[in-house]
Amino acid sequence: MATARAWRCSGLRWTPEGPVLVWDGGRRSPLVRGKRVAFAVAEETARRCVGARGNDCPLRATVSGRSTGARCEECARLDRAHSVAADTLADDPRPYRVYLAWFGPGMTKVGITAAERGSARLLEQGAVCFSWLGTGPLMAARRTEELLRAALNVPDRVPYADKRAVRARLPHTSDERAVEVRELHARARELPAWPDSLEPSPCQVVDHIEVFGIQHTEPVLADVRELIPGGTLGGALVAVAGPDLHLAVDGHGVVVLDTRLMTGWDLVTPQASRSGEPTVPVRKFTTGSAGQQDGLF
After folding, report:
1. How far is C-alpha 251 from the chain's CA centre?
2. Can you name the residues that pair with 48 across neighbouring β-strands?
3. 174-189 vs 138-152: helix axis angle to the nearest 10?
4. Among 223, 224, 222, 226, CA closest to 67
5. Secondary structure element (H or E) that encloses residue 144, with its range
6. Given strand 18-23, what is the order of strands in its sheet?
7. What does the longest C-alpha to C-alpha distance in the chain come to?
8. Cα(160)–Cα(124) distance, integer angstroms
9. How many Å apart are CA 161 and CA 105, to the nearest integer?
10. At residue 80, does pLDDT exceed 80?
11. Which of 39, 104, 168, 175 shows the smallest number of beta carbons within 10 Å?
12. 268 with 5: CB under 8 angstroms?
């Protein structure tokens, strides 16, 4: 009997044409709403470290099924050591943009991204709406980020579980969703220590509700906790937000899959007889809460 071909997912990318799943070797799968997404994890396999900076992990280390980074300790250290977040690229000559991103009531963060990337970073993070604050050299952008954290107590991180949990309770109109960003933008521009080399940007709030497709979907009832050898998952794609796929699973409602959990696994086409019932660990949400466990499917 022929062995099913295994694929390795490199993650979800937001392109000008929309979100796509990227596979090792360069193949891309456009994520179109209504499309059926189904896969199985190869039997008797382990999740392997994805390496760092485009290089394979020399140890082919096994990593936890619940890790969203899919890297061993050493590869995670190497990957972070060459990132903007680690402050190791102070001589980067590219212009950077400072932004305010809003994920839900009381959840606004400040961050920076290379200007050449446009709004891709905001889409990747699942920002419901955002506005630029200014553009300038990397260190000026970094100083502005630090200024907002210190003077206005604006965080530079929001836990992803919190972003996911609040999506079912978002305000209905774009004006309501923009209120906190507009208010914080105005307060930020009044700060006296604003770096001279950072060119301010006017407050123009961009809303991603329609792009993500989460405005008309049913409430999310559960999320995938991890993938396991032999586990299967399949459903109709109803929305994509950040790295999350919202899948309408027969008999189970809408289930969220964080695509970062897919990396490092050998994935195959599920058998027809097993393509309906999910057989991966899934956490159900209690009514009105996405933070309490209520068993597995």
Report:
1. 26
2. 62
3. 100
4. 226
5. helix 138-152
6. 9-15, 18-23, 28-30
7. 71
8. 11
9. 14
10. yes
11. 175
12. yes
Dist. CA 119–CA 16, nearest whole Å: 10
The H or E element containing residue 189 is helix 174-189
pLDDT in the model for residue 294: 33
Nearest Cα residue to 242 out of 121, 154, 130:
121
Q: Are 90 and 138 in contact (CB under 8 A)?
A: yes
d(CA 128, CA 7): 31
Q: What letter does residue 57 receive in the DSSP assignment?
A: -
Distance of CA 140 to the CA centre of its chain: 26
Task: Supply 208's token pair.
Answer: 């991603």
Dist CA 100 CA 98 (whole Å):
7
Cα-based distances in Å from 235 to 18, 136, 218: 19, 44, 14
Which residues pair with residue 206 across a beta bridge? 130
**Token reading at 5:** 């071909």
- pLDDT score for 295: 30
Given the DSSP bridges, would you call strands 253-258 and 220-224 parallel, antiparallel or unpaired? parallel
The helix (run of H) or strand (run of E) holding residue 247 is strand 244-249
Report residue 195 as tokens: 């770096």
Separation CA 129–CA 103 (nearest Å): 7
